[in-house]
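User: Structure please.
Assistant: Input sequence and predicted structure:
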Amino acid sequence: MAEFDRLPPALRRWLAEAALPWSPRSAARAWARARRASGGDEAAALAALDALQARRLGLT
């Protein structure tokens, strides 16, 4: 639980509504990649996580 509590608030909110059971560690890695790719844009990083999750669910 402590690992989850250390996640950024935006990522914790996203995980609360995620369709997949992400571990805090994998969510943090995906978040870090998405933030780097977006140049630090939080909204773009969240959209990237949505797209990643959709791919993993086979929706795209």
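Helices lie at 2-5, 9-16, 24-37, 42-56.
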